[in-house]
Amino acid sequence: MDQDELFRSLAQAVPRPDDMVYVERRGTAYSWHPVVSGVELPQSSLGADVWMYFSGNWPQDDPSRFLAFCDDMLAEMESMAGGDRCRWPLAEPYPLNARPLAGPTPPTY
Predict the structure, then answer these.
(1) CA pair distance 103, 24, nearest whole angstrom
(2) C-beta separation of 49 from 81 below 8 A
């Protein structure tokens, strides 16, 4: 299926926040399937160009938000294959003293 068919198929499936889905791209063809506990997984990533597992809140109530959400999910998936959405510039080393913006401060030793 193409990207539009993938988005329509996911919207029709109405994944819940606790559902996990597997999404892959092979060339220009996409596919997805739900991951069901206790059921043997299909040969998932073998031969896929990019793939990901996802579980979270799907914005089912707003078609435009759902489309933007799916676009972002696929961009994230593509970034794992060397796309242009790298989370940190390769020329800049990650600062070892970086801390999360919220939450408890980690202990110092």
Answers:
(1) 34
(2) yes
Asked if the structure places residue 45 within a domain, the reply is yes
| Partners of 25 in the β-ladder | 30, 50
Compute the chain's Rg from CA coordinates: 17
State which residues form the domain around 62. Answer: 3-79
Single pTM value for the model: 0.68
24 secondary structure, DSSP code: E
pLDDT on residue 79: 81
pLDDT digits (tens, 9 = 90+) for 7-56: 999 999 988 888 899 999 999 999 998 888 777 766 656 778 888 999 88
The answer to whether position 98 is within a domain reads no
**C-alpha–C-alpha distance, residues 82 and 60, integer Å:** 30
Residue 80 binned pLDDT confidence (cut-offs 50, 70, 90): confident
Place of tokens 């800049």: 92
Q: What CA–CA distances, in Å, run from 48 to 29, 84, 101?
A: 10, 19, 35
